[in-house]
Amino acid sequence: MYPRQFEYSAPASLDEALAALANNPAAKVMSGGMSLIPMMKLRLFSPAVVVDIGKIGGLDSIEDRGDHLAIGALVRHVATANSPLVQQYAAALAKAASLTGDPQVRNQGTTCGAIAHADLAADQTAAVLALGATMVAKSTGGTREIAAADFFVDTLTCALQPDEILVELLVPKAGAGEGSAYTKLGRRGGESDYAVAGAAAWVRKTNGSVDAARVALTGVGSKAVLAAAVGDALVGSDGSATAIEAASAHAAEGVNVLEDLHGSVEYKTHLAKVYVQRALTAALT
Amino acid sequence: MEVSLTVNGQAVTSEVEARTLLVHLLRENLGLTGTHVGCETGYCGACTVHVDGTPVKSCTMLAAQVEGAEVTTVEGLANGELHPVQEGFWERHGLQCGYCTPGMIMTAAGMLADNDNPSEDEIRHGIEGNLCRCTGYHNIVRAIEYAAAKMRGDEPAAPDWEVV
Amino acid sequence: MATTTSALGGAIRRREDPALIQGHGRYVDDIKLPGETAAAFVRSPFARAKVLSIDASEALAMDGVVAVYTAADVDSLGPLIAQLSFAPRPLLNGGEVKHVGEAVAMVVAENRYLAQDAADLVFVDYDPLEAVIDLKDAHSDRVIIHEGSESNTIISWAAPFGAEPEDQQAVRDQIEADKSRDDTVVVSQEMINQRLIPTAIEPRRVLAEWNPGYRSLNVWSSSQIPHALAGGIAVSLGLPTTSVRVIAPEVGGGFGAKLNVYNDEILVSWAAQQLARPVRWVETRREAANSTIQGRGWVGTATIVGTTDGEILGYDFDGIADMGAYTQNFTVAIPFLGLFVGSGQYKMPTYWKIDCVATNTTTTDAYRGAGRPEAVYYLERIIDMYAREIGMDPADVRNKNFIPNEAFPGAVSPIGFAMDTGDYSTNLNELLEVADYAGMKAERDAARAAGRHVGIGLSSYVEVCGFAPSGLADLGFNWATYGLPTAFNGSGLVRVNPDASATVIIGTGPSGQAHQTTWAQIVSDRLGIEVDNIVVKHGDTGDSPMGIGTFGSRSAAVDGAAAYQAADRVREKAAKLAAHLLEAAEEDVVFADGGAHVAGSPDSSVGWGDIASIAYQVHKAPEGTEPGLESEVFFTPSNATWPFGSHLAMVEVDADTGNVEILRYVSMDDCGNVINPMIVDGQVHGGIAQGIGQALFEEAIYDADGNLLSGSMVDYPIPTAGDLPAFELHRTVTPTDVNPMGVKGIGEAGTIGSAQTIVNAVVDAVAPLGVTHIDMPLRPRRVWEAIQEAR
């Protein structure tokens, strides 16, 4: 209910923020705070220093950079969801953002924050995996790019170092013949709340045949993961319902499915197939 | 630390701790007790206020985060008049115990500011971040429909209850 | 909008609302006192453990910490008082803790943040013991939870109620004999009615202030039972009841969770006295889950034996109910309330038995419906299974077995209780007609033919409300242990003031039920004074007649009846005064339009102001007139009321995921006469939502060690607007004859009617796949697993 005491800083520039992190190994970055503050209130996590990047200018834009979109660290879920650019070029991410949290959470929380938080049942994590996005991490030591496939390490753990800030998310723009989609089962049924299981799919079809596909799952294991076997199975097919069904059978291959309050391993393994099939179907239409 | 902001149109400065939640700044320091606390996980939405015109959950924000911001609480939504959403809640029995009501009203007012002709489905999903245990939401939906009609200048639909 | 200004039956807007919609409502945490301190509790992380030692030195050394109290400080106050106190809770436990979340120490500090900081620095050394969490395991008595007890079964309730055990056995023997006949069908199912967390959106709050000069205690608490709480505090603290004033201001939902006297309420009051400073405690949501009461928690087997053409020959229910670690206010009475409606509104011979069993979990008590939703769930589920087994429409089975109209007045349920009024077939048949049941079935069948999994669920119910006749005090329905030996009377004071306004003072208070509006309508109806000129004061023991509380759908039927009678007595006196003013005979005086006139001569009238004027200046009144114009009435009805109804739902199941979508929900409730249809509808809406919450989402889940895994709103999902359909509400009206308004009560009907309606619909949807039963909550996982098992 009440966080423990901590030091708070709200730097006005990215450099100041990076310096604050470099100087305080125990510091934690906060953007919207939608995940961090509840954990602090429950005293499950009590950082000594909170570096609030919310006052830094210039981090809240979605930019079209030719072959990719750049989503800044402070772009809110609602902005990602409603962005015509994201809807057109990265439909899976727009949909995932629209199903994140609830309206007030989407108004305050950020896409990059949710990705860095790396909740095992988050929505946008699966979308950035399927879309083959790249995370841009900055520290006083410099800038590095991390592929989404390398970004999610474990539950609530991503590849960012403690002194790094995820400053932007680079999402390849869907070109001709490419489509993506995200679909999920929420904890109360329907699509609301955290995902019991969700799947994001990105597919490219050339001359009537699937020549690339990436599918990712969320909610079924300890983190969002690529379902690599699905893409492999689908490539070379005609992307028909039959081909999708056959490829979806591989959904949980190589995925460490875990039981929780919302589903057994058997159920989640099954849901992985169902939602991969639904996501692929949507991505291909 | 000190935080300065505008609350319901008034400039205020208040002494807070870094850990002070926005809702406690409003309720304890400023005496604006219309904003309620119902959970600790950001789920119930009873604490919803507008920060710079946008509905957010004030129990899941630090007071420090709103430095320089404009905050509107239910007390300041219409400043003694009734906002169409407040009127709708009264006319269509959108509240019982009233505890979720301020947050529900703030969310609904934010929703209708963006779209004054939402479908029932849009209304229902638009208030998914606000939990009510009394009404089953039926009359809350009707209240928001009433407000939307008023804001559009239309005649609200008749109430659902049968008068005998 | 449709309004009637005064008469019973008008859908007038709520008088509560202007304050509440503008953020000016005053709930406990909105009331601030100078010099306040804040309390926090240190709670056990173990379900069962010996407390070896408590080290509060670091907490006490913190700046801003006022005090830390442990069991040794408060043992002299005795354990927490309860009505039926078989296993009382220590106020703070220094011996053997018995559930996760049990309080072992209380910290008082300068503010709530510091109180929590200090609570984290109280170090408790525990020796964990084997906890008994599983209800059947506890029932086996493998491990005894309460030292000195012979069994974990605290008490058993059996029916036919009041019959000798051998007569009860005879009923059971007859049912057994029918089961073994060649020409009968037996349907039996073990079912779980899972534990729930009430989840009022306002958690509980307490604020206490001791005045050492007046030696009086003011306590603000988010309570459904202010008078009982005042009594409980007074008895625990050794104070006269009159020294304790409890105020329940705006209460942000109760649903039974605030129908208890809690240890925190006693402890905060005591600490305020010790410290001579106000002490506030604000419950966290996790505490609301772990240390405020939970509800339901039954496992039982329902069995029907019947003919192949739908005549039920006997019904047998054998269950166990989870009491949790301690007995509190109504803990063991909840299954007993279930027994009241064990045979529902049906005429079949019934044997009904339940064992009330302790476990190392949070105490259970009343949650909306309180025993009745559970009992009705088992009965209405097994009737549905029986109908399916014999291939008969479930509506026809119900119609065939209802207690007939000819049985009223004087109907006695097979389980042994006299029922007031009922017209069950009309209610069900009107529902089927208004909902177009035939059309729904055709729609379902067409959907099925198209490969969809659509189902229809039906349930009827009868409940028992309006507790209670004075005689029930002997069964434990009284506040004697709180120092207030009173039956569950209704009470109300009605006063016409010298300025012709009216004041109504009641000893209970609402937690959303709109007493200010409803009581004003009642009194306006009797006196003809405009609703806007009537003030209703509630929830304050300082100035109100002894009131029992707002629970069990009793307010209108019992307390409302008291106010109705009080108003009538005021009117009787006023009639004498008006007759004097009008120079007419008293029996010719008619009250209307804010005053009185002689029958047939409305032009010659006197206003309430004229009447009040001579009532308070009796030298102008007939000789012998006592000054004043008020009446206080205590009301005890001749019987409880028995509301009833029928609900119907249509759902669609996604068989690939187990996801359930409610397509339609239609209800036909009968709560007798209706005071304000708008408010009655609101009660039904909320009740249905809570029943749907139980059916689809909600469950207090414990792990084997007794940790509550669903102790936050993240893991205990109550329905949101997006999860629910619009509800189609309808009514039949069968007035009761046990109170002058003919009202029965509506607060719990929606909940009692709905959970099994949804389950029946879901099972109907997946019955073609071979599913016959699924235990609640029907989260997607469980529905999918049931389909897999059936396949």
Structural notes for this entry:
The complex is a heterotrimer of chains A (285), B (164) and C (791). The model of chain A has no long low-confidence stretch (mean pLDDT 97). In chain A, the strands form four sheets. Chain A has a five-stranded antiparallel beta sheet. With 285 residues, chain A is an alpha+beta fold. Chain A is built from twelve helices and 14 strands. Chain A has three domains: 7-53, Uridine Diphospho-n-acetylenolpyruvylglucosamine Reductase, domain 2 (2-Layer Sandwich), CATH 3.30.43.10; 62-172, Uridine Diphospho-n-acetylenolpyruvylglucosamine Reductase, domain 3, CATH 3.30.465; 195-283, Enolase-like, domain 1 (2-Layer Sandwich), CATH 3.30.390. With 164 residues, chain B is an alpha+beta fold. Chain B has two domains: 2-76, Roll (Ubiquitin-like (UB roll)); 84-152, DNA polymerase, domain 1 (Orthogonal Bundle). Chain B has helices spanning 22-29, 84-91, 101-114, 120-126, 138-152; strands at residues 2-7, 10-15, 48-51, 54-57, 70-72. In chain B, strand 1 (2-7) and strand 2 form a beta hairpin. The longest helix of chain B has 15 residues, at 138-152. The termini of chain B are far apart. Chain C has three domains: 17-24 and 490-635, 2-Layer Sandwich (Aldehyde Oxidoreductase, domain 4), CATH 3.30.365; 34-129 and 201-253 and 258-290, Aldehyde Oxidoreductase, domain 3, CATH 3.90.1170; 295-467 and 639-790, Aldehyde oxidase/xanthine dehydrogenase, molybdopterin binding domain (Aldehyde Oxidoreductase, domain 4, 2-Layer Sandwich). Chain C is 29% helix and 24% strand. In chain C, helix 10 links the parallel strand 14 and strand 15. The longest helix of chain C is centred in the last third of the chain and has 28 residues, at 555-582. Residues 1-6 of chain C have low confidence and may be disordered.
